[in-house]
Amino acid sequence: MRYRAPRYLSARFLEGHLMVHVLTAAPAAEPISLAEAKAHLRIDTDDEDTLISSLIVAARMLVERSLGLALITQSWSHFLDAVPQRGCVALPLGPVQAVSAVNLHGGEGGMSTVDAGSYDIDVLSDPARVVLTALVPSAGLRPFNGFEVSFVAGFGDAAADVPQPIRQALLLLVAHWFERREPVELGPGPQGVPAIAAGLLQPYRRVRL
Predict the structure, then answer these.
(1) How do residues 67-94 score in pLDDT, each as one tens digit?
(2) Does one domain contain both 108 and 148?
(3) Is the distance from CB of 107 to CB of 141 less than 8 angstroms?
(4) Where are the beta strands (DSSP E) in 59-192?
């Protein structure tokens, strides 16, 4: 059976190999609630609830992608085409709470889990790293996405765990989009982020891999 890759958030090249990551468990809550957003917008009716809720999700996803952060606890899988030659894997999102597993995907469709004693986890560095401390076999892996690190990232399970400047920036971004409702042209530059919100987010911007 031909292997079909999942839908990835992004893809980059490292050591000549493609690396991708995919969301496996979405956050159970948003960093700001519908009630908080409506209070910020001074709206006391329910007519715009669907729109405001969608803007909250869109703002969170934009901020996460722009900063390389996971705000509320969520699970991801980070794939590389091969076992890293340098024995170190930098994880693409932070803050990392835990590494759930390191898996090897075989060319015939099977999967094996690397013993936890074969690697160390450095969550103090930014980005967090998985460092292989023992030889991990590379023979027999499928030709792409054969090496997987499953990890959990986010500031915490609740909105209150997210730093207040980020939450305030999200409110400003929701208000900006709600009041203008203008089409945004997609491209490499900032996507309709007000300057004051960008300033609140600047201290949390991570060095991209």
Answers:
(1) 999 999 999 999 999 898 888 999 999 9
(2) yes
(3) yes
(4) 74-80, 88-90, 96-105, 111-113, 119-122, 129-132, 147-153
